[in-house]
Amino acid sequence: MSRQWIEGSRRQLLSYFGGGAMVVALSGRVAPETMPMPDPELVGELEAAQARIVEMEALLPMQTIFGASVNYSRRPGQTGWTMLDGWKHHVMNVGQPDMIRVFSAEQVFTFRFDALGTPTNPTWAPNSWISFKLPMTRAWTATERTALTNSIKTFPTTGTHIVTLYHEPEDNVANGEFTWAAYVRRQVQFIRAVKAAGKPNVLVAPILMSRWHILDTSPATNPGHLDHLIAAANSTGLLDELRAGWDVIGFDPYNKSSPSPPVTGDRQTAEYWFQPPQIWQLTHFPDARFAIAETGYVATAANVPKRVDWIVRAKAYCGANAVFACCWYDSTMEYDWTLTWLSGTQTTDPQSADAWGVLY
């Protein structure tokens, strides 16, 4: 349920009684004598609506949850680091993140949150976002679905924990590894199994890629275009179930030249990358929340001030647009996205590290 829906519902609710008087009436206090007495049936409906608003507000963070992926948070070129090493490095140089973004090496069918040897332990970070890559070309067995549900039951009752079936599927679809229809069917299986665990603080989210797969001018020739995802959801009759089951819509918008290297230097603003995916979410999944599972900006010595400014603008965008969560890909995998080092060098970047760290 989106914050926009909540605020719209609140305004509509309060309009029945002219603002604050509605709250007075529903709280059981004595209403002003001048206030007209409503129909009892209407009062019941409004009380239920108010309760629903309060319930949904409890699920929304007061502000964006900022975090990081620290799987490969290390000096460029360094090898032999574990995720624990990366987490310690991030905490020491950036700060303790409010959310840890994790790529699980285990299959979710045998996954146990409380046994995972990574910083998803709630004493390390209060919130987590965990990605899996499960079989997409076949239906899962009843045993596997039960195992998935039991895995979700091991998650903590505190904090917010987002789970993703298969992140960034666009290239896999484009390469013919599976179809959007198969993706939709597996998503529905995933949603049903996760929700069966009865963990209201465990949210389901897809993770999609970036504006290229939304604004491409020739979607018919680009199998990875998200128009085809919506078409597949419609053709399988499962769009409504996706809309009901996806609590969050996640994207991975990086500041990079598209979509190939080089990726260093001044690119575009955070708004340029964040806004099209959020508009897509609001258009197709208006009751979900929008979140950024991964983002990053490769810095050189010449553009550190620009990266710092980019981080500041990213924070401003998230605050102004009720972004649910935003995680930096603090990694040297593929490119030097790390917050603490400049690209291809042994030179530190404390300015960028501080700019992101103050968000925790």
Give an account of the 3D structure.
The chain is α/β, with parallel strands linked by helices and 360 residues long. It has two domains: 3-54, no CATH class; 63-357, Glycosidases (TIM Barrel), CATH 3.20.20. The chain has helices at 3-15, 20-26, 40-59, 83-93, 142-153, 170-174, 180-195, 212-215, 226-235, 239-245, 270-284, 304-320, 350-357, and strands at 65-69, 99-103, 127-131, 161-164, 202-204, 207-208, 248-251, 289-295, 325-329.
Please write out the topology.
Layout: H1 3-15, H2 20-26, H3 40-59, E1 65-69, H4 83-93, E2 99-103, E3 127-131, H5 142-153, E4 161-164, H6 170-174, H7 180-195, E5 202-204, E6 207-208, H8 212-215, H9 226-235, H10 239-245, E7 248-251, H11 270-284, E8 289-295, H12 304-320, E9 325-329, H13 350-357
Helix pairs in contact: 1-3, 5-7, 7-9, 7-10, 12-13
* CATH hierarchy class name of the largest domain: Alpha Beta
- Give me the CATH fold name of the largest domain: TIM Barrel
How many separate helices? 13
CATH architecture label of the largest domain? Alpha-Beta Barrel
Query: What is the number of strand segments?
Result: 9
CATH superfamily of the largest domain: Glycosidases
Low-confidence blocks of residues: 1-6, 9-35, 258-266
| Helicity, as a percent range | 40-55%
Radius of gyration, in Å, reads 22 Å
Number of domains: 2
Query: Which structural class do the helices and strands define?
Result: alpha/beta
* Strand portion: 5-15%
Enumerate the strands of the largest sheet in spatial order, edge to edge or round the barrel: 5-4-3-2-1-9-8-7-6
- Amino- and carboxy-terminal Cα gap: 25 Å
Mean pLDDT: 82
Order of helices and strands: HHHEHEEHEHHEEHHHEHEHEH
**Morphology:** globular
What about the largest sheet?
A: 9 strands, parallel
